[in-house]
Amino acid sequence: MNSQKKQMGLNRRQVAWRIAQEISEGSYVNLGIGSPELVANYIPEDREIIFHSENGILGMGPAPRPGEENGNLINAGKKPVTLLEGGSYFHHTDSFAMIRGGHIDICVLGAYQVAQNGDLANWATLDTSKPPGVGGAMDLSVGAKKIFVMMDHLTKDNEPKLMKTCSYPETGFGVVKTVFTDLAVIDILDSKFIVREMVETLSFTQLQSKTGAPLTLSDNFKTLTPPNLD
Amino acid sequence: MNSQKKQMGLNRRQVAWRIAQEISEGSYVNLGIGSPELVANYIPEDREIIFHSENGILGMGPAPRPGEENGNLINAGKKPVTLLEGGSYFHHTDSFAMIRGGHIDICVLGAYQVAQNGDLANWATLDTSKPPGVGGAMDLSVGAKKIFVMMDHLTKDNEPKLMKTCSYPETGFGVVKTVFTDLAVIDILDSKFIVREMVETLSFTQLQSKTGAPLTLSDNFKTLTPPNLD
Amino acid sequence: MINKVINFVEDTVSDVQDGAVILASGFGNAGATNCLLEALMETNAKYLTVVANNAGESDYGLAALIGSGKVSKVICSYPISSGSTIFQKLYNTKEIDLELVPQGTLSERLRAAGAGIGGFYTRTSVGSLLATEKEKRKFNNIEYVLEYGLKGDFALIRGKTADRWGNIIYDKSARNFGPIMAAAATTTIAQVEQIVKLGEIDPELIVTPGIYVDKVYLKK
Amino acid sequence: MINKVINFVEDTVSDVQDGAVILASGFGNAGATNCLLEALMETNAKYLTVVANNAGESDYGLAALIGSGKVSKVICSYPISSGSTIFQKLYNTKEIDLELVPQGTLSERLRAAGAGIGGFYTRTSVGSLLATEKEKRKFNNIEYVLEYGLKGDFALIRGKTADRWGNIIYDKSARNFGPIMAAAATTTIAQVEQIVKLGEIDPELIVTPGIYVDKVYLKK
User: Best of D141, D161, D204, D208 to disrupt the C interface by mutation (most C CBs within 10 Å)?
Assistant: First the structure.
């Protein structure tokens, strides 16, 4: 039963793979902290993509081999990375000017919730026992040309994360272009969730039941069929 | 007669020399286009001063030797210069951030007129036959910590240039700290012209008659006695 | 493979349309892109607005473009350099418009456009003739004027060395407006003296990362 | 002869007074000036405001300074890094104030202070909980919020190499807040790994010109 449940949706690597297919040659891309970082692993080999890290790197490469880490070369998640040939360094203000000025083509962010009008909630929960922290989330959400969200379709408590309106504090308003979940690829168009792709293990009605706002099937609907990535 | 008339006041090199004495070790100094550029030639040899050029140079050095000019290394007056060891280059916006942010200790500017409250007129005359041009004059006048003015005491038509209020369009308001003319060194304090030094060939009454606003003799008055610099 | 290098100068500016705002780098001749400006002169684009520090010198580059009649308006800080005769003649006969902007405000407005800043407050020009129509505001009891971002459709800049990603380094004070105009335009075209392999420019030395550059033209 | 090199770490921060605003460079540990922050801990200065991206990790550097009780307020973007326990404990017991600022707005506010910009308009945070008390304004029908310059009394930054004029270069992504904080503070103190002779740093490579640096301390 358990293994069957797992198979219903995509694992994180498969969602990352799906997002990677959506990124075209020559794009400048910022990957949010956490799961979005996986996207870099699945860019097709013949495609040249330039990754931006908001702490001041363009042309960021993969994690270094063990023992070759450099504390001065880290990504926005403060993990060691490398620099590709052609990469460059700049200071924080230049880096956020790059973000806010609309120069980043795509930013892939995690989210707590996404509303059908594209509102994004990914910086604060309603938990006040810890101090709040925002980092670069608000800058990225308004600055990048396209915001992709990578998240589970449901919370751990099986609550919908795709909503009519966010119940968590918003990070940005009307900013999300496409949501990639373990179950579907959903575009946001004219304040509607348009299902462009979904897994074949689920009916549209079942997907709707897991979503907090009405879904529309795209005219170009396709089945979401990722490769096995364990 | 002619040579005697010349001797009444300082020549430009002597005014430049006098200004140079006023610049202390380690100062960051911007020299305006034209006569103020001469100041660099008279800095005492044991004093290290760092010159800024608003087109993106710190640590600007003297003119190159003939034949060693480089069209990519010019000053704000578009004349070839050199770079000292320790000098650096930066772009225009960084350069004017440096100016506007109050990081330049002293700026020496030429002027058409200076008012007794420190207003400076040095960017436009009343002649409308040519297009106007402002360059960096307004940025420098509000940005530098101290504005020194280097100018003749009188116009070519023997009109005063030190005034109650400027008749030419102002560049900055209340910004001038000290005026160095061919006849005197005049500080501006509480909207008064305070004569700190003047040449000995002139009486105070004569100086007053050449000035468009009341002069006050400084408690620390000294005679202005430059070396011969022909 | 990303390759921003363009082989023919006429292909660099072929998509400039009527009414475009052109950001032209350079402080006098240092950092000016004469070959791109002259290529622009050969296109059919007209009613251009040119943003630059100066208004051209002699009869080449920016002066030639202005003299060709394709430029309706110049936004600059200092159009009265010696040798800027073509602009001055057109100005005096009212055949060209001028928006005069203090040099630091010009470069800050360009920076704002590239950095997603809608407007900013500067003390520069407060109280002067250049501020008569500007909105004023006090911060800590000091008066400032409101200035707006100044965005270009095309930036024509000049660098020293580039690579196929469009990373650029400059030479000495020729850096001037290049980096800031590159960021402020929708499309940025760079004329350079040298193109090197990816990775040959020290990453600490790159002044304009390729993200700001769309086309690179090698002018031998 | 200009010489900004200071030999003893206690002489770098000895003039910090009560209530001072301290700009502390670093993104996590990259570019953080642990030895200067710890020297500051040894002074008598208290009621400090610290501006940094984070609020310290573990029990050294910024975390140690915060733990010493000398800091009344932290202005930062992300105080919830793993290991930021000292700050979080003081925050929960209301022993320290927090002003939370989006990362890009934080760095832009610092830049504004260093660049003589009184205020600027950004789209970041528009409509959010962090903008409830911010003034709004539309440019080209897009909403922005007004943000103010954020000036420091002291910047404590970390570079790689310096010279006696205080010119500084950085190492990789450790550059982060250093250049911008150096310009935003009345007094800037830099911890570096190496001091070289004047002229040994390529003038095209200098990121922070010495005009922004008052003291240089060599941490071996």
Answer: D204
